[in-house]
Amino acid sequence: MPLSLKGRHFLTLKDFTEQEIYYLLDLAIQLKAKKRAGIRGNLLQGKNIALLFEKSSTRTRCAFTVACIDEGGHAEYLGKNDIHLGGKEDVKDTARVLGRMFDGIEYRGFKQSFVEELAAYAGVPVWNGLTDTYHPTQILADFLTLQENFGTNLQGLRLVYAGDGRNNMANSLMIGSAKLGLHFVICSPSTLFPERELYAECQAMAAKTGGSISLIEDPNEAVVGAHAIYTDVWASMGEEAQQAEREALLRPYQVNAQLMKATKRNDTIFLHCLPAYKEKEVTEEVFESRASKVFDEAENRLHSIKAVIVATIGNL
């Protein structure tokens, strides 16, 4: 029986098998080729999706909107001042209202519990566009970019994340890498290592797929053999007050030419989920170098998000 994700939520990659993640990546490749060929589709014809945003966004908002339009659907943006989510109105009540009007709901905000409650009550697929805990749609774009540079089978690739090792990006990259058998390294101060429970969970997943999860404090040791070095802002949205403290702590983890050279490979690529603070977590030199694939990665948000929408509510 053909694999189908129809009607499924997309809250974290923990909920998906290796086969299902590759299915989404394969679909993203097909949809990207279709887009590049200038072919407008109808896979979302007659579908309406709600975009709930508590946090600001460039790539996620644009990707969901364009993805829906490209395949004949309609996307309705609802910002934090447009609805009463979690304030005047309970999350579950908002979910039950929107679920009767829309075919799918995207949520980008702070609490993972909010997107989970939306999923529990909406009656339609709910997609996580980012929470403080996870950012699963970004990982699909990252892995699609890795495939474009190193081949479609990602097992055995060494992916090093340098920076804040317990933020939503580190968490999500760790889960995705464990699911697909990558050798994933979090390179950060021990005070910013990921939550022990999630780390142990990912180690157990990686043991089944031939991958590994490592925590290393020394940047020069961590990046040896890396196919890709990934970083993110040193203070996430909502943590701006800690910016100066984080800069002092994470300065040794800046991705610069010296760190790229320390991989001892000539094909290492640089990845960043954007937006980037240049000369902070990454130097302008690396960001603008040939090794930088950040804009391929940003474009791939569109194709991978389109794959998620089409797979879960599309006319396949």
Automatic annotation (TrEMBL):
Keywords, alphabetical: Cytoplasm, Transferase
A GO molecular-function descriptor: amino acid binding
GO cellular-component term (any): cytoplasm
Domain of life assignment: Bacteria
Positions of the Aspartate/ornithine carbamoyltransferase Asp/Orn-binding domain: 155-311
Residue numbers binding L-ornithine: 168, 232, 236-237
Protein name: Ornithine carbamoyltransferase
